[in-house]
Amino acid sequence: MSSRGWGRRVPSGPAWPRTGQHAEQAASLSGRGEGADGVVAPMALTDAYGRRLDYLRVSVTDRCNLRCVYCMPPEGVEPTSHAEVLRYEEIELFVRVAVAEGVRHVRLTGGEPLVRRGFPALVAMLAQAPGLDDLAMTTNGQLLAEWAAPLKAAGLRRVNISLDTLRPDRYAELTRGGELARVWDGLAAAEAAGLHPIKMNVVVLRGVNADEIAAFGRLAQRRALHVRFLEFMPIGDGVRWERADCVPGAETRRELEALGELRPLGRPPGATSETFTWPGAKGTVGLISPLSACFCGDCSRLRLSADGKLRPCLLSDSSVDARGALRGPDPERAVREALREAAAAKPEAHGTHEPAYAGPTSRMSTIGG
Question: Which of the residues 1, 110, 146, 178 has an alpha carbon 20 to 30 A from that of 20?
Answer without folding.
Answer: 110
